[in-house]
Specification:
about 140 residues, alpha+beta, ATP Synthase, domain 1, Single alpha-helices involved in coiled-coils or other helix-helix interfaces, 2 domains, 9 strands
Amino acid sequence: MAEDIQLEIVTPERYAVSESVQIVMAPGTLGEFGVLSGHTPFLTSLQIGKVHYKDSSGKEQVVFVSGGFAEALPDRVTILAESAERQEDIDYSRAKAAYERAQERLASQKEDIDYARARASMQRAFARMDVSQGGGTH
């Protein structure tokens, strides 16, 4: 069995995750990628989505991330995220309300709407809702 690797998910405010894990899957801008111990080093940007990993006991864990960067090394994955929230810290009803507000803004057809910002808000809210409901655990 492969050795564990260290996973660090860091935001400007705090460490969201710092633990030894078996595997990490993350939302790269060119698609989801996975990292096991001994992986070839690389650096990539991240899109809004979920990082899922198996902790050292083999239990699946899910964390919402809002963009940022990931560095994979043979013994460590470091994710520098704009924001990150563990599954148990996400309030589904709050995320759903944010999603609905973003949908309303996009549907309003007003000229003063920042559509890119509203779409990004809707994408973040949708990803939070997905993660809070167990989103995509394998």
